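Quick review question:
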């Protein structure tokens, strides 16, 4: 990964408390897994931003290296990698995701 790409991802994460790297946007998810994450975050009613990896090949590949996680979507809360769709579902069902987001937004 280039230093420029790492800096770009670092900057995106520092600017957004809750950020999802996904296929499509929160208004138009382009895959079922990305849609799952959008639906969960919308249900929680929390502010979040998305990065469409389909629009930027460098980020699409770089974020996988950055997180050491091979799939998209990827959720970050307070700059920390949380996981993908399956993990988001588990955390949502257990109530942990709500707590993580509330802590992040309060900080």
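Suggested answer, residue by residue:
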């Amino acid at each position: 990964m280039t230093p420029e790409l790492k800096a770009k991802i670092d900057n995106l994460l520092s600017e957004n408390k809750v950020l999802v790297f996904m296929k499509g946007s929160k208004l138009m998810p382009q895959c079922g897994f990305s849609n799952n994450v959008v639906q969960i975050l919308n249900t929680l009613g929390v502010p979040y931003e998305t990065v469409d990896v389909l629009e930027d090949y460098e980020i699409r590949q770089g974020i996988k290296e950055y997180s050491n996680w091979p799939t998209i979507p990827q959720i970050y809360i307070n700059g920390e990698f949380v996981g993908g769709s399956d993990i988001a579902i588990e955390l949502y069902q257990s109530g942990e995701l709500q707590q993580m987001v509330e802590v992040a937004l309060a900080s």
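Why it works: Residues 3-15 form the longest helix (13 residues). The beta strands are 18-22, 49-52, 74-77, 80-83.
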